[in-house]
Amino acid sequence: MQNLFLSRPKRNLPLKPARVTANDVAEELGVSRSTVSRAFTPDAFVHRETREKVLKAAKRLGYQPNAIAQALTGRVGRIVGIIMGDLQNPFHATIHSAVTAALQARNLTPITAQTDPGSATINNAVETFRRYQVDVVLLTSMQVESDMIGACKRAGLRPVLLNRADPGLSVSSVNADLAAGARMAGRHLAERHCRNVVVLEGPEGLWTTENRSRGHHEGLLSAGLSPVACLRAGYTYADGQRAADTVFGSGMTVDGILASNDLAAIGFLDRARTAFDKIAPRDFALVGFDDIPMAAWDGYDLTTVRLPVLRMGDRVAELAGRIVDRELDSAEQTLVPCTLVKRGSA
Amino acid sequence: MQNLFLSRPKRNLPLKPARVTANDVAEELGVSRSTVSRAFTPDAFVHRETREKVLKAAKRLGYQPNAIAQALTGRVGRIVGIIMGDLQNPFHATIHSAVTAALQARNLTPITAQTDPGSATINNAVETFRRYQVDVVLLTSMQVESDMIGACKRAGLRPVLLNRADPGLSVSSVNADLAAGARMAGRHLAERHCRNVVVLEGPEGLWTTENRSRGHHEGLLSAGLSPVACLRAGYTYADGQRAADTVFGSGMTVDGILASNDLAAIGFLDRARTAFDKIAPRDFALVGFDDIPMAAWDGYDLTTVRLPVLRMGDRVAELAGRIVDRELDSAEQTLVPCTLVKRGSA
DNA sequence: TAAATTATTGCACGCGCGTGCAATCATAAC
DNA sequence: GTTATGATTGCACGCGCGTGCAATAATTTA
C-alpha cells in the first residue's frame, strides 16, 4: 500500500487560502445559506428573482460551489478515473485527448492514473480512485496488463472499457468494429491483386488483436485468398521492423502486408526500405490500422483503417455520465464502424 | 460560465454505494473514530500497538480514508490541476506522461483540463480547478493561448510553468536550457562544414521560440556564421513541409537546417525528399529539437536536441508538492541542460 | 374578512474526517 | 499509599454543502 498519510504544513502558515463560501454570499444578501445552495440547484424551489440575485452576487464575490463539499453530502461526485494507455503510442494519445474533451463537455472531471508496465500499480490506481470516491473508471489502454477489470470490480468501481471488451459482457464497453475494418483491409489488398499476403498480428490474448487478426483473415478468405504467413509481431515500431526482417530476410515471395497497426506498419515500411530496398506500393502493398497522424505523412502515405475516435470518446463519456447519474445499471456494448482510408501504400 | 449544476439520480436508487468509513473500523475494534483517524496520521499520538491493530482491521475491512472528506477538513487537498498541451504533438505526450508519473510518485493526484484551441476554455478549466479546491496548476503547454498565467493568478491558483517562463519571474517554472541546446545544434552544423544555414523558427511571441531561435543564431555566430535565412515556420509537421517548399522552391543554396522542433524537421525532410529529391545528410544537414520517438525512426534518423523530460517532470512534481505542503512561497526557476543526440541527419 | 392553499425561505442535521481539549490510564516519583 | 507526570484515548466541534421539515409569506378561495 502506498503512503496514505497526508502531509501537513510545516510552519503555521494559513492552512488554506481563504475562499468564498456560500455563507459569504448568504450574509452579503441577508438570506440563508440554504437559499444560496438552492439557487445553484436546478430544480429546487427558489423564487426566480432570488435565484438571479444570488447568482449575480455569487459572480461578483467570486463564489463557486465547493465540489469537494458537494461530493461529501451524499450525492456522488463527478470525478471519473482514467487509466490510460501508453501515450508514446500516438493512437492512445489521440484517444486520451478525445476522451478528456468529451468528459469535459459533460462536466465530468477526469483524474488520470498511469500503470507503469509491470508492478502492481493497477492496485495503486484503484486505491487512489477509491479514496476520491470515484466510481467510474475508464480503461482506455489495450495493453495486456494483469486483471484490471477484476481489480476495479472488486474495489466496487464501475469500469467502462474502450477498445477492449469484457469476455462475459458484464461491463460496458465501446469498441470500433475492428473485425469489419480488418475485413475491408483484407479485401482491399485482394482487389489490388495481391496474392501473397502476410498478416502481422499483435500480442496474443488481447481482444483487439483477435478481432483485427480475424478480420484480416476473413477479408482475404472472402476473396478466395489465404495468407502466406502470420507473424505474431506486436504494436510497436520495433515490432514492425522485426517483422520486415523476418519477411524479407526469409526470401519468401510477398506482395501484400496487413499490419496490426500503423506504428508497426511504419516500422515495417522503414526497415523494408532502408534494409531491403523494398518500397510500397512498388514492391508490395500495405494496409495499416488506426490512422495515426504519421500515417498521413509524406514519407508513408499509409492506406489504413480509421477508427471514429471522436465518436468513441463521446460515447464513453456518455456512459460515464449515465453511471454517475445512476441511470445505467446494466452493461451496454457499443460498436462503431471503421472506415478505410485509401492512400498510397496499397 | 459553464453549467455548475449537479445532476441528481432520477430514481430513488441508492445515492451512494456504501463504503467503509472510519466509523466502521472504530466500531469493529471498539475504539473511537478519532483513534482510527490518528492511526492514519503519521505523527499523531497513538499507541503503536493500537495503530497496528487499526491498520490491520482497516485493511481487512477494506477501509481507506476518504480523500474528499480529508480535503474538506481544512488541510489542503492533494489534487493538482494540469492544463496540457496538444497531445497530437508527441513531445507533449511524452511530457504529459512524465509529469503524471512524477505526480503519482509523490502521491499527488492530477486532474487534467484541455484548452480547446480558441474559445474561452481557459476560464472553464480554472473554474473547474477552483471548484475542486486545487491550488496548484501545471501549465505544460507551450501554445500561445491567451493569458493563462494571469487567469490562474487572478483566480488564486498557483501556476507552475513547464517549458515556458513568466516574464516577471514571479511564477515558478521548469525549463530546459533551450538556448544552450540550440547553440549546440548551431555549432554542430558549423562543425559539419555547413555554410548556408536556414533557421526555422516557431510562432512569434513564445518563450520557447525565442530561446530556440536565439540559441540557433548564437551557435552559428560563435562559429563565425550567420544564417542565410530565418523562416517563421511553426511547430507542426505541415509547418515543416511549407518551410521545405519555401527553401527549395526559392532556389537558394542551402546546406544546413536548424529546425524549430522535430515535428517540423520531419515535415521538412519528407517534403524535401518527396518533392525536391533532396535528402539528408546527402544534400543538406539538419538538426531537430525535442527528440521525439519518431526522430529515431529509420526513415529520419534525426540528429536532434534532447530535453531531459523525466527530470523536468520530476522537478515540476516536486514544486507542486512543496506548494501543496505550504513549503514554497516564492518562485523558483529551474533550468536543466539539454543534450545533443547525434544521429544521421547531420 | 377569514380560511385554505401554495410559493418561498430558514433551521437543523449529517456527509467523513482532523484535531484541540479534557478525561482517563499507566507509570514514576514522593 | 499518594501524588505528580506523561502517555493514550474519547468527546465535540467544524470544514462547506444538500435537503427534509417546519415556519413564514404570498396568493387564492370561500
Describe what you observe in this structure:
2 copies of one chain form a homodimer. Chain A is of the alpha/beta class. Chain A is 41% helix and 15% strand. Chain A contains 12 helices and 12 strands. Chain A has a 6-stranded parallel beta sheet, sandwiched between helices. A 4-stranded parallel beta sheet of chain A has the order 7-6-8-9, with helices on both faces. In chain A, helix 5 links the parallel strand 1 and strand 2. In chain A, helix 8 runs parallel beside helix 9 and helix 10 crosses helix 11. The longest helix of chain A is centred in the first third of the chain and has 16 residues. Chain A starts with 21 loop residues before the first helix and ends in a 5-residue tail after the last strand. The interface between A and B is large, with 84 and 85 residues. The first copy, chain A, binds a DNA duplex (30 and 30 nucleotides) through helix 2 and helix 4.
Order of helices and strands of chain A: HHHHEHEHEHEEHEHEHEHEEHEE
**Span between N and C termini of chain A?**
51 Å
Largest interface, and how many residues on either side?
A-B, 84 and 85 residues
Give the oligomeric state. homodimer
Summary?
The structure is a homodimer of 346-residue chains. Chain A has helices at 22-29, 33-39, 48-61, 67-72, 90-105, 121-131, 148-154, 178-191, 207-221, 237-249, 262-276, 309-324, and strands spanning 79-84, 109-114, 136-139, 158-162, 172-176, 197-201, 229-232, 256-258, 285-287, 304-306, 333-336, 339-341.
